[in-house]
Write a structure and sequence with these properties.
Length: about 325
């Protein structure tokens, strides 16, 4: 069953109109799997973007934590896109409800992803991310997940093994290697890594660029975690290439904020948890057409064999 079946054009336009805007009826769906995001043309203004959250995924308080952080960041002139103040809502400044969907509105933002960054771009991104962390590290955020082996690992395991697509003869080996991997990860988080609210899904696809520089978007997976969670996915290529990329990035980052370089010990544990969570997430959503179309290989034996091999490699890396 697709929980977004009710998001028909008339419904979307009615939501926009309820906030005092005049939609033309022209709607463009933007890229999003977990939620639904649409650009809606208006009669007299620039287009507006509406984001419908997946019902039941986050509590109202969890969503408001995201909005609060974005509001504080914008006030501090950190490059993010914050939700608009709504003209009509149910007691919240930036969040409203069109049953069964919580939703918010954003101004249209002009920017593009830049997969291959120059050293100057990496320094620029480092400065922006350090400024973001300087702000979010001072905030008390109560309703977001703490990233650790339990929340991103153990809590996902049942979702993986409930899937009918996992070949039965691979099940025992996969369960053994995942649990062994989590046993290795758990003590790594025992050290006080000073977690705070971070973007949580900070890869280059969630950084948009224009003439004003980088802007971080999509804080839907904001978590409480050490700063390395927002850093480790920004580097790619050979070890030599990554060393060069890190040098440029931290030249920018450390102009504004010190970084605990010993936290790179968390990279392989974090990579493993992301892999486990991603596999569980696809399975939980696989009854929706967009997931079946995007991840058709999820039902193939080869996918599960490669996942098993990858988890074995991660155990070795940790």
């Amino acid at each position: 069953m697709n929980v977004f079946n009710d998001l028909l054009p008339d419904f979307i336009c009615d939501v926009i109109a309820s906030q005092g805007y005049r939609p033309t009826g022209q709607i463009f769906q933007l890229n999003s799997y977990e939620n639904r995001v649409y650009e809606v043309a208006l009669e007299t203004d620039r287009p507006i973007v509406v984001k419908f959250y997946r019902p039941g995924r986050w509590s109202t308080e969890t969503l408001l934590d995201e909005h609060r952080v974005l509001q504080v960041l914008e006030t501090a002139e950190v490059p993010v896109v914050r939700p608009l103040t709504l003209r009509h809502s149910q007691g919240y400044e930036t969040l409203a409800f069109a049953y069964p969907y919580p939703y918010c509105l954003y101004p249209k933002f002009g920017g593009h992803a830049e997969p291959d960054l120059s050293d100057d771009h990496r320094q620029w991104l480092g400065r922006a991310l350090a400024r973001l962390h300087n702000v979010t590290s001072t905030l008390e955020i109560r309703h977001r997940l703490m990233l650790n082996a339990q929340t991103y690992g153990d809590d996902q395991v049942s979702s993986i093994f409930e899937r009918p697509f996992l070949p039965r003869d691979l099940r025992a080996n996969l369960e053994d290697i995942i649990l062994r991997c989590l046993d290795l990860i758990d003590p790594v988080f025992d050290r006080d890594w000073r977690p705070f609210a971070v973007h949580g899904d900070c890869h280059l696809g969630n950084v948009l660029w224009n003439h004003q520089g980088p802007t971080l978007v999509d804080f839907d997976d904001m978590v409480l975690a050490p700063a390395i969670q927002d850093v480790w996915m920004l580097f790619h290529g050979s070890e030599e290439e990554q060393t060069k990329q890190k040098k440029a990035f931290f030249e920018g980052y450390e102009l504004f904020r010190a970084f605990d370089h010993t936290s790179f010990a968390l990279v392989e544990p974090l990579r493993s948890l992301r892999m486990i969570r991603h596999t569980a997430w696809i399975g939980e959503r696989f009854d929706e057409e967009i997931f079946r179309r995007t991840f058709p290989y999820y039902t193939d034996r080869k996918y599960w064999e490669e996942f098993l091999l990858s988890m074995k490699e991660q155990c070795g890396a940790i």
